[in-house]
Every structure is written in structure tokens, then in C-alpha cells.
TrEMBL record:
This is Branched-chain amino acid transport system substrate-binding protein. Pfam families: Peripla_BP_6 (PF13458). SUPFAM superfamilies: Periplasmic binding protein-like I (SSF53822). Keywords: Signal. Residues 1-27 form the signal peptide. Residues 31-383 form the Leucine-binding protein domain. Belongs to the leucine-binding protein family. The keyword Iron does not apply.
Length: 419
């Protein structure tokens, strides 16, 4: 390290100060970066890739309108290989790179690990906090006993989805006699297994649970042994929270075996499942979602239709599926612009708390108590006459029940610690 004889300052010190100032300037004037932490390799790579396309398309469209505070939005892809431990490392990498926002959604086991990592960092690192935006991990614990000031969920929690789904099933009591539950063996699937049995009793659904199976996540290639159990049980209804290939392979196996059952799902409308079953799923494959392409099609969603049609032109192999990503990105923009500073994470979190946003499906609210989004929901069924097909399958989804916000809400036990 050299000392300048005239100024008395060390050259190395000046360089260090210059680099630090440059880094701060970049953080405040460069792009607003969001780490996308999802599986981009392995059995769920197709799901991770689809989500990445959604986020990058949304960022691009928003950047065309000036971005956030005049700064572009940049989505930084990080492959977690569907591993909780890998995801924790990527949270730390994001923090080290000065990225203030992380997003994830596939796997509540991953989400739980990320919540802990974010909370731990934010307790220890007041000057470099990070906000976790959850667009798809639906374990109710994340907004109940494990709720966090720095975690926001933009998808309906599993208990909310089951509340809406079971209400619809109750309305079809005369068609449902025997229910078979099949789910992935981790927190999300375990919750559905437990709670669905409780709801059958609580709502007086006149049906019997004749099977309840939990299978390893992302490890089953041949579902035929499970299909045999469904067949032997005499079930007329299957309920599953499976996603990705675990749902596509399940539905395809049910179809191949010629089982005469209705299939109630969380994720039957995208990411490979419609293509796996095609028109054979008409009238039997149901989904509970916050949106699908035929929602309000008679009234016309002109601007939003342009949005998802342009997405389809850009990525012909998939559909615009994650409406919640649209909501999440625009609500984050609104919160940052209310604060006027993309680096003040505590203030941004407070701006998101209680925020009401006019989405294409109506008013949605980020509940302040637990950071759970509250929004209308829709039950829909596969229909060859739908305006928009799904997964280039020739069949789309038709709404069979509109579920208003007040019927798509459950209480929370969250006792949140705030800074």
C-alpha cells in the first residue's frame, strides 16, 4: 500500500473507498434485482423454467413502463435443485451480492428453510436485509406458527384452497361417495391428507375416505401400483395436491387404467398435466386456482388477454399460468414506490402489509396479520369448448364456481415478531 506524500492518504484506502461508493451507487441506481431460487435442473426443471419465463416476461413488460422508480427490474436465476440446503446457500449468495429480494414457490419444505435463513440474516445484518416473496409454497404453517415479518405469500395457502374445494365438493354430495387421497410425502401433501379428512366430517360431506396415500416426492416413475389401490378401493373421486411431473404422471396413469373417477387438484391446469391427459380429462379433471385463462372471458379482460397472449407468442410451448406472479410483481412495485427507496426493506414490508390491489379478478388484500394474500378463487373443470386451451392440449378450463374472498379466507394463528 502506497502513501501519497502530498495528501498523506494511502492509495489502497482510496481505492477501497472508491469501490465501496461505487457499490452503493450501483445498488441505489442500478437494476432492482430479484433472486429466483427454483429447480432449474432435475425432475422439476420444467416447473422452474416455466416460472422463470413468467418472472422475466413480467419484468420486461414492467420495464417497458419505466420499471420501478425509473430503475429496471432484473430477475437473477439460481438453481436450487429442489434442495432446502441448497436454497439456504442461494439466499446467502443473494445477500452477499447485495440482492434485496428473493422469490420461490416450489416446495414448502424449501420455503420453510428459506424463511429461517432470511430471518436469521435480518436479525444479524441490519444493513443488508432481504425480503422473501413466496408465489407458490402453500403450507399453512408459513403464515401461522412459522409466520415472518419478512415473508409474504401471494398464493392461497393450502387450508384456503381446501376450504374452497371442499365447499364445492359438498355442493356435489350426490355425485361423491368414496374419496381417495394421494399426495406427495412432505409438509404440503401431509397437510392435505390430514385436513381433507377433517373437512369431510366438519362439512358433513356424505362420503367415505377409502384411501390415503403419501408417496415420495419426485421419485415415482410408475404410478400403476397406486392406481391399483385406487381401483381396488372403489373410489369415484381422487383428491391430490401433487404438482409437476408427480401430477402429470399420476393423471396419465389414471387415464391409462381407464378409471372412472373425478380428479380434484390444486395444479391440474398447467405445467404438463393438461398435455398429459388431453381431451380425455374433459368433465373429470378439476382445479382450484386464483385464475385461469377463461375467467371472466364473457366480460372481456382485454388488457390482460393481450398480456397472456403476448406471453404465449413469446413462449409457444407453455401458457401464462401464474397470475399470482403478475400480482406479486405489481404489488412489490407499488410498495417500493410508496417508500421511494428499494433498499429500505423494513419500510417496504410495512407498505405491503394490508395493501389492497386491484387485480384482474377483483380486489386482493395482503393480510397484515400474517402476510397471506386474500383473493377470489375459482373452481374449474377441463372443457374442450373453453376459449383458451392449456398446454397446447386442445382442451382448456371452464369455471364451475366463483368463490368470493369472504369464502376463500381462513383465520390465522400468526403471532408475528416485528422489528
Amino acid at each position: 500500500m502506497l502513501r501519497n506524500k502530498k495528501t498523506g492518504l494511502f492509495t489502497g484506502t482510496m481505492i477501497g473507498l472508491s469501490m465501496a461508493i461505487s457499490s452503493i451507487t450501483y445498488a441505489q441506481e442500478g437494476p432492482i434485482r430479484i433472486s429466483y431460487i427454483e429447480p432449474l435442473s432435475g425432475p422439476f426443471a420444467n416447473v422452474g423454467d416455466a416460472g422463470l419465463k413468467h418472472f422475466r416476461f413480467a419484468a420486461e413488460k414492467m420495464n417497458e413502463q419505466g420499471g420501478i422508480l425509473g430503475r429496471d427490474i432484473e430477475i437473477v436465476a439460481m438453481d436450487n435443485k429442489q434442495s432446502p440446503s441448497e436454497s439456504v446457500q442461494l439466499v446467502q449468495r443473494s445477500i452477499d451480492e447485495g440482492i434485496n429480494f428473493v422469490t420461490q414457490g416450489n416446495g414448502s419444505n424449501v420455503a420453510g428453510a428459506m424463511v429461517e435463513a432470511v430471518d436469521r440474516n435480518n436479525r444479524r445484518n441490519e444493513d443488508n436485509k432481504v425480503l422473501y416473496l413466496n408465489y407458490a409454497a402453500v403450507d399453512p404453517a408459513l403464515t401461522n406458527e412459522r409466520c415472518s415479518f419478512y415473508h409474504f405469500r401471494f398464493d392461497a395457502a393450502s387450508d384456503i384452497k381446501l376450504e374452497a374445494l371442499s365447499n364445492y365438493m359438498k355442493s356435489r354430495d350426490d355425485e361423491i361417495d368414496k374419496i381417495f387421497l394421494i399426495n406427495q410425502d412432505y409438509s404440503h401433501g401431509q397437510f392435505i391428507s390430514k385436513r381433507m379428512k377433517e373437512l369431510v366430517d366438519e362439512k358433513g360431506i356424505e362420503a367415505e375416505i377409502v384411501g390415503d396415500v403419501l408417496h415420495p416426492i419426485a421419485q415415482v416413475r410408475d404410478f400403476s401400483p397406486y392406481i391399483s389401490r385406487i381401483q381396488q378401493s372403489g373410489a369415484d373421486t381422487v383428491v391430490s395436491g401433487n404438482w409437476g411431473n408427480d401430477l402429470s404422471l399420476l393423471v396419465r396413469a389414471i387415464d391409462s387404467a381407464g378409471l372412472d373417477v373425478n380428479i380434484y387438484t390444486y395444479y391440474g391446469g398447467g405445467l404438463g398435466t393438461p398435455a398429459a391427459v388431453g381431451p380425455r380429462g374433459e368433465g373429470i379433471l378439476y382445479q382450484i386456482t386464483e385464475w385461469h385463462a377463461d375467467v371472466n372471458v364473457d366480460e372481456g379482460l382485454t388488457e390482460y388477454e393481450k398480456w397472456f397472449q403476448e406471453f404465449k407468442e413469446r413462449y409457444p410451448e407453455i401458457d401464462w399460468y401464474y397470475h399470482r406472479i403478475y400480482n406479486q410483481m405489481h404489488m412489490l412495485k407499488a410498495a417500493i414506490e410508496e417508500v421511494g427507496n428499494a433498499e429500505d426493506i423494513d419500510a417496504i414490508a410495512r407498505a405491503l402489509e394490508g395493501m389492497e390491489f386491484e387485480s384482474q379478478t377483483g380486489t386482493i388484500t395482503m393480510r397484515a396479520q400474517d402476510h397471506q394474500i386474500l383473493q377470489p378463487m375459482y373452481m374449474s373443470v377441463m372443457d374442450t369448448n373453453a376459449k383458451y386451451d392449456a398446454d397446447n392440449s386442445g382442451v382448456g378450463f371452464r369455471t364451475v364456481a366463483n368463490i368470493p374472498v369472504e369464502q376463500a379466507t381462513v383465520d390465522t394463528t400468526c403471532d408475528m415478531r416485528r422489528p
